[in-house]
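Lab meeting prep.
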Amino acid sequence: MHTTITVWNLPPEQLGRLRWLGHQLRAEVKAASPREAGVPLRLVVSAPEESAEGETPFPETLLLLSGFEGGQLDRFLAGCREAGLARGAYKAVLTPSNRQWTAVQLMGELREERAALEGDGRKG
């Protein structure tokens, strides 16, 4: 499988740095279009890049990672931290369970997970 980082709502100044990091990891970086937020994720990661202009149905930054192998994911996350990229962004890996979802559905799940984790952290 081809290694791809598909992004929604990443500020333009960070997109260039993410493309550089992707190049270092031999991963294609694709800025998804707002239209693609309603398309199954499995189709979005394999489609050619479209214009990312327009309003996405969610305001948060989302990074969808697919085809990562071995330590590649750890290197990607470390590279993001070192470069100050996508802080606070939602990140997910394309899996057999979520490949039929849309980005809108994935964001709903990720928001719920984050809220549950942050809620548990405050109970401590």
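Slide two material, second protein:
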Amino acid sequence: MVYDGRDDEGVFFHDELKRKMDEYVHSVYNLTKVYPSHEIFGVTSQIRRSSLSVILNYIEGYARRRSSVYKNFLEISYASLKESSYLLDFSLEEKYIQDFEKYN
């Protein structure tokens, strides 16, 4: 039998997706090192937490080993991605950063 990334419950785990999520959160952490010090408990903290939640919810959902629970955690992970994406746009508008791409 060929392994397709699915466990006994039909829950998928994609190493490539996990790798990309890991790269994303590290990029955000590196990016936020240049944020103004007055934002350490504001935007800096929030964007770090939301970007980290992307991968953490993916891993936690997979660890629960039930397809319906996994799907719920994927939705939470996606919502955290959208939150951190907005915060990146916000950071650009506030001129905390110039270009996200140079931090990847």
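Talking points for slide two:
The helical segments are 15-31, 43-63, 67-93.
Residues 29 and 56 are 15 Å apart (CA to CA).
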